[in-house]
Amino acid sequence: MAERLQKVLARAGYGSRREIEEWIRAGKITVNGKPAELGVSVSSKDRISIDGRLIKLAEEEHPPRTLIYHKPAGELTTRKDEAGRPTVFDSLPRIRNARWITIGRLDFNTSGLLLVTTDGELAHRLMHPSWEIEREYAVRILGKVDDQVLQRLLEGVMLDDGMAAFGTIKDAGGEGANHWYHVTVREGRNREVRRLWESQGLQVSRLIRVRFGPIALPAGLSRGRFRDLERKEVEALYTVVKLSPPKQAAARRAPPRRGTARRGKRVR
What we know:
Pseudouridine synthase, 19% helix, Structural Genomics Hypothetical 15.5 Kd Protein In mrcA-pckA Intergenic Region, Chain A, 6 helices, 10-stranded mixed beta sheet, alpha+beta
């Protein structure tokens, strides 16, 4: 079945539909050796090139796939690291004729829920600030936190890239010098949660993302493991950014598996 070129390439993870339309206008994409035109429809049988590089499309019977990955601290969300440090892509399953896209990032020392998809349009919308997708974090603070600090963090403080604030702060308990809070933000700014707390002279000793939009980190999913989204989760995720869910979810019903780490290294 033929579909619009920009839709096919976005779903395969090459960019958003808007970006791909710009590439078409700029003459960067060819279909069967000829410059692509806006509105052209293609199938897996067509030869498509981007900047002269031939790409392969997934067969139509394979719908987009989205995973929940429980990222451990000590992994990067980049594809490669010059220093040879492990990345989340080392632990994800291998796929053909598509590529994994992380929906947002978690820094090296942050653990928790990371959504990974082969649908580029879904990833683009979920990460775009205009959709204001809420992220929830469990954060352990080292130091005394008084009501004035919490009020400032809710009202907003000036960071080096502009004003920022938590949407909500909930006390999650704790003992001694360490205390847990659950906080929410609606932007994907670099290290935003850590920087907000640090702006008040406080140290974040642990940070875990527990929810991204409608998807929460499953209680039974251990660090370093992943699973496909269930059908109801797929529908919720697509609906929140006003996209039509795939006709069939690519969910596997096998129990969560440990990702295959580089050189057989165990993921802790």
